[in-house]
Amino acid sequence: MRDGYIPGVPCWVDTSQPDPEAAAQFYGGLFGWEFENALPAGSGPSYLIARLGGGDVAAIGSAQDQAPPQATWNTYIWVTSADKTASKVREAGGNVVTEPFDIMDFGRRAVFTDPDGAAFSVWQAKQHKGANVVNEPGSVNFNDLYTSDPEGARSFYGSVFGWTTLTLGPGMEAWTLPGYGDHLELDDPDLRKRNAEFGAPQGFEDVVATLNPITADRPDTPHWGVTFAVDDADGVAAKTTTLGGEVVIPPFDAPWVRMTVLRDPSGATFVASKFVPENAS
Q1: pLDDT, tens digit, for every residue of 120-167?
Q2: Model-level pTM?
Q3: Where would a tag sit more exposed on the chain, N or C end, judged by fewer CB atoms within 10 A?
């Protein structure tokens, strides 16, 4: 299990929901998550930590009073100082939506938007060290930026987090953090060897997120989304409908994966993806 991240790496996701208990029933049924409320009993709002095999994977929180009616998934990026990152965001042309603030003894959070309007959070960890379980069925596989201004995004996220980009294929691009692969290899010495065997491009070990241009044939609103790993994309799509959600895009094959776009009963959209090495080309 993971125990912390390095600065510049997405480390946590949560979803803001009008009815957290109902959302917990949906995602518990879909991914097998078990939940514990991190907030004191009787405090009003809920923040349900989702776990798999005893490890934290995500959370479901109560929507704030000023939040839009449609639920969303939120991405958090690990930083050493939320306050210094807020200054970098301003200097790079982004906006500070919520100034840095402490969440009990868990950590310090701030909420920003990039120049294109995509919202994201940063996390300065204290007791809560982000997701313990990733890249396993039912846990986060990728964080995904959808932007109408890829060039502007490269400048902004490069300035704030030091990210660069890697081309994965036609129309496919990823965010990379130089040196991230070296950090991962401390616990996974065969990482680069395994990536090469799967046919991944050189530098894939440094990937921290994906970059998805919004185009006329793929219209969208700038936002950060989340992809969950699954062991059966078709099965998860069918179960989503059974649990009251919606299949936005039916399962389809893409390089290295079979994936589907889904929506929970409150409107939060997410991707479910199964790793399929045979789909590499």
Answers
A1: 999 999 999 999 999 999 999 999 999 999 999 999 999 999 999 998
A2: 0.95
A3: C
Number of domains in the chain: 2
Q: What angle do CA 210, 281, 277 make, to 5 degrees?
A: 75
Q: Is 275 exposed, middle or buried (0-12, 13-18, 19+ CB in 10 A)?
A: middle
Q: Could you identify the residue written with the tokens 């990379």?
A: 176
Quote the domain boundaries for residue 100.
Answer: 10-125
Please tell me whether residues 153 and 270 are part of one structural domain.
yes
Q: Are residues 155 and 197 in the same domain?
A: yes
Same domain, 144 and 94: no
Residue 109: CATH number of its domain: 3.10.180.10
Last residue of a domain, one of 125, 151, 171: 125
- 101, with CB counted inside 10 A (0-12, 13-18, 19+), is exposed
Q: Smallest Cα–Cα separation from 262: which of 251, 275, 253?
A: 251
Q: Domain check: are 156 and 274 in the same one?
A: yes
Read off the pLDDT of residues 202-212 as tens digits, 9 standing for 90 and up: 889 999 999 99
- Distance separating alpha carbons of residues 53 and 65, to the nearest angstrom: 33
